[in-house]
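Possible race condition, two jobs.
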Amino acid sequence: MALPDWFILQSPPNLDIDVKQWKNFAWNRVKLLEQLPQGRSRVVRDHFPPTDDDSLNQIYNDYRLGAYLLRLVAATNRRLEAWLIETEGDLFEYLYSDRTTVNQKWDIFKSLFGSENVMNYEEFKYKMDEKQNEYLADLYHQFHSARGRVTSDFLTCVHFTQVPWMVSNRRGYLRKGWVVSNEISFRGSLKKAFEHKLQEEVVKAQDLLGVNESIDQAVQEIEQNLAKHTQIRSQFSSAEFEGRDLQSHPEIFPPCMIHLFSEFEKTGRLIHAHRLQIGFFLKKIGMTVDDQLHYWFEKSVDNLNVTYEEFLRTSGYQIRHLYGLEGGKKDYAVPKCSTIATSYFCPFVHLAPAILFKFLSNNYLTRYKSLTPPENRLERIVSQSGSNPTAACTEYFPIIFKKSLYRKIVHPLQWARYASKFEGLIVEQRESDSSISEEVETNQ
């Protein structure tokens, strides 16, 4: 396979290097990942100059070495594992679309989904005896005659087992167990597959610990510095919410969570994915496992005539699983906005325009009686919600809190953190941790 040099899930480059230099590569990788929310295009351009010479390949190799060491670090800390998978997924998404040829994209499809689960249009047509399929022929004709089509886009066939979300949402033509669609339609599923593979690599990395003392020491140093790093902790984890009773303040919930919370309070029912979504969030804003067990037991209509002991043996297992107390015992993170938009519930994506407008107009009014959202602003938010839900969510925030934001909302905890500070529920604390750039200089 001709996988691109930036792709970190291929065989690692030569590991016969000085551990001190390896640590520097890892910190450079952290600096790259940490800066991504500031603008992926600019950050990637700064770290990976757009050139085709050998120097760029060497830069990619150095960063891949850093990524390999970070997988060892993530194997020692589940919170850092969640941060690493999330940010590496974002970086993969951008580099795949911006720095990858058509042939390399095919190879990435095969690497992530498995060669046996990927076929091009012609291969599918002949192997599956679909040469007389008129609908498939029309699909091919429409794709190649479409105006404005991205020239690097192409028709792809992926086995349904690899893209369950596309099957359930009917994104593509399902035929004989295969999903046929254009390459761009598969990118969300491709990113999920990448994140899943990366998680598998983190698990494998555990076997490499305890073999070399100098490497173990480097891993420990990076883990300790990353675990206390202010921006990573506040952006992607819930450390500042720990020990607080924020679940009793739904006014600080982001729109997706307050919609689910209100729906469950009114009806006592939520589908499984939505229960997970609000369950992750309640956990991360400070609700203990015992409190959440009692909350679902008391509020859910499914628990009528069920004793608490019976509930603990059934639904209680799932709630304990959220906290890493059952199953694989992983400390699950709250999904970020892009994941929520594709796999969970986002009002800006999943509500019809008229219903969304009503929801935005009435939302939070029990707390802010004087709030009268200007209709023209809400109409603009609704109009852009389908194509850019994070921008719509970000524009909605100052309507509620009368405070402007300088960063786009990309994570539910980000909304909750800003709202909690504006409501005076938590106090922002400035830390004196060394910056990533200082760590790099120190290790050189």
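Job #2 (started ~2 s after job #1):
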Amino acid sequence: MNDKVTLREKIGYGFGDAASSMFWKVFSIFLPIFYTDVFGISAAAVGTMLLVTRIWDTANDPIMGIIGDRTNSKWGKFRPYLLWISVPFGLAGVLMFTTPDLGVTGKLIYAYITYTIMMMAYTAINVPYASMLGVMSPKSNDRTSFASYRMVFAFAGSILVVATYQPMVDYFKGIVTEQTSYQLTMFVVGLVAVLFFVLTFSWTRERISPPKDQQNNLKEDLKNLGKNIPWFVLLGAGVATLIFNSVRDGVALYYFKYFVGDESVVEWTATTISYSTAYLFLGQTTNMIGVMMAKPVSAIIGKRKTFMYAMFIAAALSGVFYYIDKDGLVMMYVLQALISFCAGIIFPLLWSMYADSADYSQWKTGRRATGLVFSASSMTQKLGWTIGGSVTLWLLSYYGFEANVEQSAETLDGIKYMMSYFPGIAALISGLVMIFYQLSDDKMEVIISDLDKRRSEE
């Protein structure tokens, strides 16, 4: 087998997270306001639905990881799922943005069913995709490179969505009803995502297999995961980071629609762009710049310090956001760029460190359970996303939010808190937790060298 990692393979791996991130941004930014302002259910009901369905979805992640670890095919353990699940993944997105002609209760039941199906499809394709990072190369530098490409493409996919989603909705609204315009927009997004997953499947390879004498033993794998202290540190930091991101993303459109006044627009060539679209586009662009800086910065000061410092800076800058007046667009954009840069730089490091924790577990125990490690990691990411998304909608309800009406001073103040202090606290917690991460770059070199020797002996 060819062990050399090619540029095409890195690009191919990146396409997979472009697809996932397109949907992730749709879930985080556009779905909440679609449910409350278009679909027609209350913010509190949406928040509860997200919590209930995502708890079930979170439990599915380790199950999918276990299935992946026990899959044997000519394409490997994890790659085939990118081919098998891509079309159901795209179709589930369209169903989720379809508004049935039902009453409030019927709509809520429909939302529960379609959102659950969407999340199960997301798990079935994204857990194997994430697990591939642990089996495409044994070299830590290759993994950081794969993770960096993954994150660059992830934010490229996010940029594509935030730049085109609302303009597509507005375009289709000139042809069909508002509800159908969201459905057609999601059809286009789903079609692109399917293509990206097929390219990932076609252009990547799996190179690492479990030790030849390793027998399937779920109890032993779970026991080893429970002793993996670096993984638990990453768990805590990852959950806090996702809460930080999901609260800021989830409230952004409400902030611009009800506080800033998103009817105002800026002219760019022949296109009219809303303030919120420009804000989200800027955030994803600077996210991607942060991703590209992850490898050079961490090569100088290490992964752990890069992660910590980025989160501490993001926490401080988030607090400042509260004091911006609704006319302070320049400062909003400056802070958005700086905070998003800090958020972007940590994600390739986080996934690279998850791969390192899988190596650490094999080094300590002699067993490798890549799918379980990454699915459990994905589970914690969804947990943070679940908490952040549900809390955002519950807080909107708590502060008295009502869709499509002028909001009270108390509600607007609550929305400002959700753009500033609440995510800032989560970022601070993430940085503090990372203090306890002990797999330094030097230690990983020793671990990887030892594992290489064991493989060569086999």
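The chain has a mean pLDDT of 87.
Logs attached separately.
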